[in-house]
């Protein structure tokens, strides 16, 4: 390992508010990769950039719609005459109108299925709502937003309230009301096999509700000890669907549809009566609804106010598009559809569930058998059955069974949102409890059980070599990093034994995790492409699907292209209007890492073109030339040179059409494994958290977090840092304060506002030491791998072990709020309490 | 309440200085008595930086602007109450070349940037009154604004950098 270089920027050391990023030294091989670059998109913050709701066209109408005040209700009758008679109200659309009747968009988990199974959650404007906040009943288009609001108040809706259930355990009782009927099924427990739904994980049989390997009973027999425990997790996830309220703008004119929609236009969307469209996106939907050929749709993607994966997956995001287009076609005017809801309205139900664990292990910490049962959120389980992702594939546990029941409840559909929290919780519960039972350091237990699909990591070197990777041990590196940085050996202590002078208990927790998703999961060639156009001023413009979700991805793309093409960073920009070439497949995980491969290929192709043209101009062979900082020169005679800008001016025809990268010739650190089963997850993350817990109030004070993320390769340090500390604040907040509370009597959310749903603010933040480890074990360019989800998922699962270490009792409910801490204390004999 | 309504009714024309420019709005014509400052700035003046995530319940902080130098939630303030007052948004702050903009860019103190203008205007108010704030004072000043991406550490750093730049300029 090379000597560490500490980056003081962006925050100073030795402050309670410190963020410190450490990484390995800048690689002299690269001019731009691994170095901080100025952020380009300042127009996001100075008022000059366009967010969705900033856009206005002459004659534009405003569309709004009802949302359900009930958890489950049917529209019996609508009297919209009052709205229709209002001056300035141009159109009224009711749920029985042929334009919206039976029109639905797909929720993400149905994308594998040509036979659409579950239209109920994603109807554009249904007559029955299955969760509070769902768009339902009636929509209006008016001259102003205020008029649209007023018109909705003049619509009389007669509701039939229906039985509801919001608790997943209650939903499985025989007498439970049916929350929402899954087509072809009779109750709340969804049978994926009957529904024909394929789970995400390729190692799980299609339609199965479990994954299994080895001999579970033998594993328990071989164990020295067996423990059983359970855990309940609530619903949170504000902001996953976007902090900026959803909106879309459609304008049909001159045979074209101009469509403004938020960041990712690859949302898997289909109109109901239309047969499956391969690689369906919101654009075909809009074209169909507008009656416009697909080749006459122009898509514009403004900035969006937060986007954490949900934009790609949640069908709710397509609803404004559908209504904007329908109204635009009916009225002949531009229509801005404004979702009159916050991110709470369609809050993701990703994490909620009830989990039961049975774990067998030896005295040395080796886990011999794990059985995880869960009654978990349907959407999460459709992505993977809890435990079937991280626990199954990135441990050495030989005997493993994870199975789930999937109840529907009257909550909004699931959306991915810095995904992985649920899997991280299941994963770390196993190892934290084993370490606690043995009185061993959880780091030791982690290293004992690290592996891949049931084989220890130390047996995987041959496979790493075969795939072209270094034989580095990622977990050992990240564990070493957090152990040293946190002073673990000095701060870790037996549970419930360190009471502080302030009366609180000190605790320290540890969690680890695989990288969330390698890039690419599948062949990178599928659907990805980008171009680079050379301008006569010497700049080069990247042409690819704009996806400005906010992780400074465009800066990173420009870094890679500039690095590979031999251009200056400031000479490479990204086109903000071009949206034809596809970058980042539907879905957000590791999207930047995936696209890094395309960008590297693009830069290499650009360099090849530049040198070919320069060779023509200079009378040399391309291999005799080099391009650096946007200047081509002769290797043997550096004084013989010409700028790229002059080359483009002299030979415009040679640069016409630019260069393209399609992923057919992938550029990566390794040879891409040919099948998904051969893609392994080599990267690891680890974190240490120090807390103080007040035994009288249950309040938890976060004192310090040390987190190490193996990102494979840092391309843009400041961007990586943002994902590290940002994800950590989100993860700790979701573990400690964020939870939606549903009224059991009405099924309505009780705290769907930012006053009573507590997102961490500056006043809550704490010291973070973030370490970016670079092993090169990712499938992305330069061996990089996605970092966006890891810090959130990792820290989301970290708090419980720290609280246990403080108090000596486990808090079996999540998030860990003060009342739950006190409840746990009341149920247990707290060793430390006894000594008071 | 009746006093406020009465005052508004008597005052038919509202004069507001927005980012250094004088505006007049006639109540009942340009705006209504219940028009909020947020609505006025976005809809009548076209200032895009004034944003909201909570649809007007005052809990997200994204719509923060300066009124007579103090940060206020523009969704919680009536436009009519801004008569003869000075309103600043990030557009004005950027136009005057305030170092906060560069400091935010340099520090990557935003991701989506949706709430960044609120941080910037609030930091401007802080630095106007306290050119050398401590971290605790920055936290105290900016803790009413929510960032889902958790950009807080970089924001602190950006404010400190801007303060240093201002001190170097000799501007307090």
If you compute it from the alpha carbons, what radius of gyration of chain A comes out, rounded to the nearest whole angstrom?
Answer: 27 Å
Going by helix content, strand content and strand pairing, the class of chain B is alpha+beta
CATH topology of the largest domain in chain B: DNA polymerase, domain 1
Return residue spans of chain B where pLDDT drops below 50 for at least 5 consecutive residues: none
| Percentage of residues assigned to helices of chain A | 25-40%
Structural write-up:
- The complex is a heterodimer of chains A (836) and B (172).
- In chain A, strand 23 (540-543), helix 16 (553-565) and strand 24 (572-574) form a beta-alpha-beta unit.
- Chain A is an alpha+beta fold and 836 residues long.
- Chain A is globular, with a radius of gyration of 27 Å.
- In chain A, the strands form 7 sheets. Chain A has a 7-stranded mixed sheet with strand order 5-7-3-15-12-13-14, with helices on both faces.
- Among the domains of chain A are: 53-162 and 242-338, Aldehyde oxidase/xanthine dehydrogenase, a/b hammerhead (Aldehyde Oxidoreductase, domain 3, Alpha-Beta Complex); 181-238 and 347-451, 2-Layer Sandwich (Aldehyde Oxidoreductase, domain 4), CATH 3.30.365.10; 525-661, Aldehyde oxidase/xanthine dehydrogenase, molybdopterin binding domain (Aldehyde Oxidoreductase, domain 4, 2-Layer Sandwich).
- Helices cover 26% and strands 22% of the residues of chain A.
- Chain B is an alpha+beta fold.
- Chain B has 2 domains: 2-54 and 76-87, Ubiquitin-like (UB roll); 97-169, DNA polymerase, domain 1, CATH 1.10.150.
- Chain B has 7 helices and 5 strands; from the N terminus they run H-E-E-H-E-E-E-H-H-H-H-H.
- In chain B, helix 4 (99-106) crosses helix 7 (152-169).
- At the A-B interface, helix 20 of A face helix 3, helix 4, helix 5, helix 6 and helix 7 of B.
């Amino acid at each position: 390992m090379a000597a560490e270089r500490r980056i003081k920027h962006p925050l100073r050391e030795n402050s309670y508010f410190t963020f410190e990023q450490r990484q390995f030294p800048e690689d002299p091989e690269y001019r731009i990769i691994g170095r901080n670059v100025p952020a380009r998109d300042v127009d996001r913050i100075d008022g000059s950039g366009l967010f969705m709701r900033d856009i206005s066209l002459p004659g534009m109408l405003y569309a709004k719609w009802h949302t359900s005040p009930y958890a489950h209700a049917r529209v019996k009758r609508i009297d919209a005459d009052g709205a229709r008679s209002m001056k300035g109200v141009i159109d009224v659309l009711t749920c029985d109108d042929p334009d919206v009747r039976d029109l639905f968009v797909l929720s993400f988990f149905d994308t594998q299925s040509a036979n659409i199974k579950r239209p109920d959650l994603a109807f554009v404007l249904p007559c029955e709502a299955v969760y509070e906040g769902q768009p339902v009943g009636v929509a209006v288009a008016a001259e102003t937003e205020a008029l649209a609001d007023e018109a909705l108040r003049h619509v009389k809706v007669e509701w039939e309230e229906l039985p509801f259930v919001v608790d997943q355990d209650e939903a499985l009782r025989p007498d439970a009301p049916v929350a929402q009927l899954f087509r072809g099924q009779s109750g709340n427990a969804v049978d994926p096999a009957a529904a024909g739904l394929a789970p995400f994980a390729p190692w799980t049989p299609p339609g199965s509700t479990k994954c299994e390997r080895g001999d579970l009973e033998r594993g328990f027999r071989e164990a020295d000890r067996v423990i059983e425990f359970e855990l309940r997790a609530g619903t949170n996830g504000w902001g996953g669907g976007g902090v900026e309220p959803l909106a879309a703008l459609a304008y049909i004119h001159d045979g074209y549809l101009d469509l403004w929609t938020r960041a990712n236009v690859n949302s898997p969307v289909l109109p109901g009566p239309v047969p499956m469209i391969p690689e369906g996106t919101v654009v075909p939907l809009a074209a169909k609804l507008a009656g416009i050929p697909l080749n006459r749709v122009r898509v514009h993607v403004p900035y969006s106010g937060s986007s954490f994966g949900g934009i790609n997956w949640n069908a709710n995001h397509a609803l404004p598009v559908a209504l904007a287009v329908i109204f635009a076609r009916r009225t002949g005017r531009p229509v801005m559809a404004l979702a009159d809801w916050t991110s709470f309205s369609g809050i993701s139900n990703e994490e909620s569930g009830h989990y039961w664990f049975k774990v067998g292990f030896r005295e040395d910490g080796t886990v011999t058998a794990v059985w995880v049962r869960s009654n978990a959120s349907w959407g999460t389980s459709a992505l993977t059955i809890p435990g079937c992702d991280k626990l199954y594939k990135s441990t050495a546990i030989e005997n493993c069974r994870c199975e789930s029941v999937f109840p529907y409840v009257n909550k909004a559909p699931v959306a991915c949102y810095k995904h992985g929290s649920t899997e991280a919780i299941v994963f770390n519960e196993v190892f934290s409890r084993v370490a606690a039972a043995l009185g061993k350091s959880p780091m030791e237990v982690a290293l004992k059980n690290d592996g891949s699909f049931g084989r220890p990591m130390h047996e995987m070197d041959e496979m790493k070599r075969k795939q072209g990777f270094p034989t580095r041990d990622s977990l050992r590196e990240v564990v070493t990093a957090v152990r040293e940085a946190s002073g673990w050996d000095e701060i870790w202590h037996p549970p419930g034994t360190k009471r502080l002078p302030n009366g609180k208990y000190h605790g320290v927790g540890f969690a680890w995790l695989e990288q969330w998703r390698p890039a690419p999961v599948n062949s990178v060639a599928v659907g990805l492409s980008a171009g680079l156009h050379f301008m006569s001023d010497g700049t080069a413009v990247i042409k690819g699907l704009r996806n400005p979700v906010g992780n400074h991805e465009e800066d990173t793309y420009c870094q890679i292209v500039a690095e590979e093409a031999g251009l200056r960073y400031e000479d490479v920009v990204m086109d903000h209007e071009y949206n034809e070439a596809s970058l980042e497949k539907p879905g957000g995980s590791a999207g930047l890492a995936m696209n890094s491969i395309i960008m590297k290929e693009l830069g290499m192709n650009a360099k090849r073109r530049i040198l070919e043209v320069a060779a023509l101009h200079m009378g040399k062979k391309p291999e005799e030339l080099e391009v650096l900082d946007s200047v081509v020169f002769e290797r043997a005679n550096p004084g013989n040179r010409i700028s790229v800008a002059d080359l483009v001016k002299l030979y415009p025809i040679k640069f016409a059409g630019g260069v393209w990268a399609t992923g057919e010739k992938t550029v990566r650190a390794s040879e891409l494994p040919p099948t998904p089963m051969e893609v392994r997850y080599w990267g690891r993350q680890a974190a240490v958290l120090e807390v103080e817990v007040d035994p009288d109030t249950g309040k938890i004070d976060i004192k310090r977090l040390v987190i190490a993320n193996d990102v494979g390769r840092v391309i843009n340090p400041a961007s990586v840092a943002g994902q590290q500390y940002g994800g950590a604040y989100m993860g700790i907040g979701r573990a400690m304060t964020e939870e939606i509370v549903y009224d059991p009597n009405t099924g309505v959310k009780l705290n769907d506002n930012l006053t009573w749903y507590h997102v961490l603010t500056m006043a809550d933040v704490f010291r973070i030491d973030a370490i970016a480890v670079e092993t090169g074990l990712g499938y992305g360019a330069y061996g990089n791998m996605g970092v966006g989800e890891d810090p959130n998922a990792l820290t989301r699962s970290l708090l419980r072990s720290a609280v246990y270490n403080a108090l000596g009792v486990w808090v079996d409910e999540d998030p860990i709020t003060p009342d739950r801490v006190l409840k746990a204390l009341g149920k247990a004999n707290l060793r430390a309490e006894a000594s008071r | 309440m009746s006093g406020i309504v009465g005052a508004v009714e008597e005052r038919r024309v509202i004069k507001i200085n927005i980012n250094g420019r004088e505006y007049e709005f006639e109540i009942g014509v340009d705006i209504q008595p219940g028009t909020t400052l947020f609505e006025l700035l976005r809809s009548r003046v076209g200032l895009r930086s004034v944003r909201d995530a909570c649809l007007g319940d005052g809990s997200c902080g994204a719509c923060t602007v300066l009124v007579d130098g103090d940060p206020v939630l523009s969704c919680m303030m009536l436009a009519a109450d801004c008569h003869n007052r000075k309103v600043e948004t990030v557009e004005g702050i950027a136009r005057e070349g305030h170092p906060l903009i560069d400091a935010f860019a340099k520090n990557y103190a935003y991701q989506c940037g949706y709430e960044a203008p609120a941080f910037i205007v609030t930091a401007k108010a802080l630095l106007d009154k306290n050119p050398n704030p401590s971290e605790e004072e920055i936290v105290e000043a900016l803790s009413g604004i929510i960032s889902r991406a958790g950009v807080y550490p970089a924001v602190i750093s950006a404010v400190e950098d801007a303060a240093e730049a201002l001190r170097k300029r000799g501007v307090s």
